[in-house]
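Example: Alpha-L-glutamate ligase-related protein ATP-grasp domain-containing protein.
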Amino acid sequence: MNEFAITACDPGGSAPLPDLPEDHHRHFMANLSGVERLSLLKRFTLDFHADPDLGKISEEQAELLYERGFLPEKIRLYGLNRDNIDLYLSDVQRWLTRLVNGPYSIVFNNKVLFTQVFGRYCRVPGIIAIFRNGRAIPYGELWDRIISGQDSGRMMVAKPLGGGGGGSVYFIRTDRHHAVIETNDEEGARVVVKVSELAEVLAAQEVPFILNDYIQQGDFTQALFPLTVNTLRVLVIRHPVTRQGQVIRAVQRIGTSESYPIDNFSLGGLSAEINLANGELSHAVAAEGKHAGKRWESHPDTGEKISEKRVPHWEDIKADICRLFENLPYIKYCGFDLIIDDDGFIVLEGNSYSQVRLFQMSSPLLDNQVLVDFYKSEGLLVT
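Written out as structure tokens, the predicted fold is:
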């Protein structure tokens, strides 16, 4: 496999650095106010001391990170130091992006509402049933056909109704008699039940679940790693001056033997930055697991080439995402998860406070002046 060690990010290039005050993170942290912001600061403090990487860094490094709102893992993931830290969005700032869309964040936090709103403007996975309070709530007649053995068989995906993060995802394959369930949970990774028992399994979850149609990915992402659906995360903002949607960063997520059966970056999956100008993939990186700590030009499990591959119809994808954003003028910030197929893309979900380490392990977010101006306009950077 083609690989090379990760080093601290070099901004590189000849473009001027954005207009950022020196040591702006420390000033931002010192001036946090308001109930929501201070509650997030409390959460940050708890997470900081619970981070396993805290014991692997020096007291000086810990002080540098804490005073500027970064978790200890970012030394390992970003190669942070006093010289480059100003160019990275901090963990506290990322958590505060949940406030950017105000009350409209509910559109992203409930997958039924997301389907109803976004399904008017783009393709989204169909809903088969919802499971809550110990019972199934069918969406149409399909669910009854499945559990009664009248359906000839299909692939489905079940996951928590609210929030994100990729945890507790179930891939379900049925025939007329049985359901094979595969999950990313460490316990019970693969079980077989009767189709008549499927409702009992899903309704027994501690949180409400949604059951969707499985989406078949296209040839491009299938080739990257065929055992997972490999999604794109596209970060879109509403330009602070023009008020139009703008794709600001994008990455291709790629599953591995570590993350199977999903492509989740936090569970050992890979992330490859997408060149916004031409759709070309960079090398890939992993945040966790046996593939972390290196940059992969080819897939570490299969040897499939990653770097320099180009996302098909990239210009059309960017244009369509921006048009989608324009249909929702009350949304200002979103990380869209897309499944690319041979007809375009399906919007799997949206994230109102997108995880950013899958972007920043390739290059820092605050090296982009437009994004810096946006964060300043939302009160997430000092001016």
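The CA atoms of residues 146 and 223 lie 31 Å apart.
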